Amino acid sequence: MTRIRIVEVGPRDGLQNEPRTVPLDTKVELVERLAGAGLPAVEAGAFVSPKWVPQMADTAALLARLRRRPGVSYPVLVPNAKGLEAALAAGVEEIAVFGAASESFSQRNINCSIAESLERFRPVAAQALAAGVRVRGYVSCVLGCPYEGEVDPGRVAEVAARLIDLGCYEVSLGDTIGVGTPARARALVRRVAGAVPVERLALHFHDTWGQAVANILACLETGVTVVDSAVAGLGGCPYARGASGNVATEDVLYLLHGLGLETGVDLDSVARTGEWISAALTRPNGSKAGHAWMAR
Ligand code: HMG
Ligand code: MG
């Protein structure tokens, strides 16, 4: 049976955009509950500038408090050498560098061009790998940019291939503003799979236009087996105005389990965690499947 690996990004992609400070205790409990639900990877935070993303400023404190489960990966975002230094000091085993397929988004998100970002990632990835730390890569705006509109799929393939060349074991394709539709999403993955083996690609779809589950279903036909999602559909991107959260983990689990695909993740635990974190943040639960599961 095909197994799909879910990368839970709620504690990072979800919380980075929360307007109010989330208490450290809540963050620690969130990550631990998600790992306890069977998620093989829980993106725990980001070593980025606290001026740019204040919500991630306590990532080192979170990692110090976290009871890490063997076999679970807790990646953190790292944009530059300073971030890597902090990540290594915190004893991380995996980092993620994050680039974009759109110049304007790259400038707004990490204050440099795409080419500059890749040059910046090169020594970061090399140093991480030398320290035995795995490196994942992201490409943002793969199906559209909030500033430039359409994005060339060829550019996405090129940036993804460059990230693999830098040593990323996997590249996650971000539909940052959730504008993709199934046929376009599938065609994009096929195009990128011409440059990077499909086994090394992941889907990272935001659900702004309500298409994320449909897009994932369409993309499964390409052979991709890794999906990023966020419990309760938390989040958005601070540098993509109007972006809503990632596709909800509960919705993805309901889809995949319904298709007979294995994830190793317990929907009940994730749904309970989704209800709990939504209440803690005083926001509505963004997962339809989670809501239905709890109401059944
Ligand atoms: P910059 O201003 O160009 O950096 O920002 P700088 O090197 O000139 O440094 C300026 C100040 O930031 C200095 O402090 C540095 O020490 C500090 P000051 O002297 O002014 O007090 N600094 C740092 N502090 C802590 N950690 C660091 C760090 N680096 C510099 N690593 C920078 C460049 C990349 C740092 C900034 O633009 C930044 O932090 N951006 C992060 C943006 C971000 O986190 N965005 C959200 C995540 S991406 C996303 O959500 C998309 C994704 O989900 C996929 C998708 O959906 O598409 C992944
Ligand atoms: Mg994202």
TrEMBL record:
<dbReference type="GO" id="GO:0006552">
    <property type="term" value="P:L-leucine catabolic process"/>
</dbReference>
<comment type="similarity">
    <text>Belongs to the HMG-CoA lyase family.</text>
</comment>
<protein>
    <recommendedName>
        <fullName>hydroxymethylglutaryl-CoA lyase</fullName>
        <ecNumber>4.1.3.4</ecNumber>
    </recommendedName>
</protein>
<comment type="pathway">
    <text>Metabolic intermediate metabolism; (S)-3-hydroxy-3-methylglutaryl-CoA degradation; acetoacetate from (S)-3-hydroxy-3-methylglutaryl-CoA: step 1/1.</text>
</comment>
<dbReference type="GO" id="GO:0004419">
    <property type="term" value="F:hydroxymethylglutaryl-CoA lyase activity"/>
</dbReference>
<keyword id="KW-0456">Lyase</keyword>
<dbReference type="InterPro" id="IPR013785">
    <property type="entry name" value="Aldolase_TIM"/>
</dbReference>
<keyword id="KW-0479">Metal-binding</keyword>
<dbReference type="GO" id="GO:0046872">
    <property type="term" value="F:metal ion binding"/>
</dbReference>
<dbReference type="InterPro" id="IPR000891">
    <property type="entry name" value="PYR_CT"/>
</dbReference>
<dbReference type="GO" id="GO:0046951">
    <property type="term" value="P:ketone body biosynthetic process"/>
</dbReference>
<dbReference type="Pfam" id="PF00682">
    <property type="entry name" value="HMGL-like"/>
</dbReference>
<feature type="domain" description="Pyruvate carboxyltransferase">
    <location>
        <begin position="4"/>
        <end position="271"/>
    </location>
</feature>
<dbReference type="InterPro" id="IPR043594">
    <property type="entry name" value="HMGL"/>
</dbReference>
